[in-house]
User: Fold this.
Amino acid sequence: MILYYSREKKTKVFATALGEVLGREVYELESDLNDKGSFGFMIKALGLAFTGKSYPVTNMPQNLPEEIFLCSPIWGGQVVGPAKYFLENADLKNTTVNLLVTASVPVEKYKNNALEELNKIPCTPGRAFIFATSDKIPPELDVIKEQLRELL
Assistant:
């Protein structure tokens, strides 16, 4: 199963590509962050990013398989609040959790921050992938699929 949170849909493109490459179900984690309007969203998202707090997911998945991929953007150097909430609240004791994060900033700078999220939860840490994205141009699905095939 591929789970993702994506406000601007860039991370959704990566999750969709990963689901197609691996032949797995893709599931969107939803929250009401987007319902706060652009200004409200920016204030809330920045606050979450800099405090490291989570933000509730409104559709927590049930019956997780033995291996999942969690796809999340990085905001303010942190995995986004809804992805953190999923990690903190899902029953992952018997699950291998792989992490795919996207960032429009130099990714190496935040690599350790993203990986630390897996060390905070009771799960079997899997692989981690970090992709740089453009603020302006959405990633092309075929290019992402090719990159993922090479990595996997």
About this structure: The CA atoms of residues 53 and 81 lie 6 Å apart.
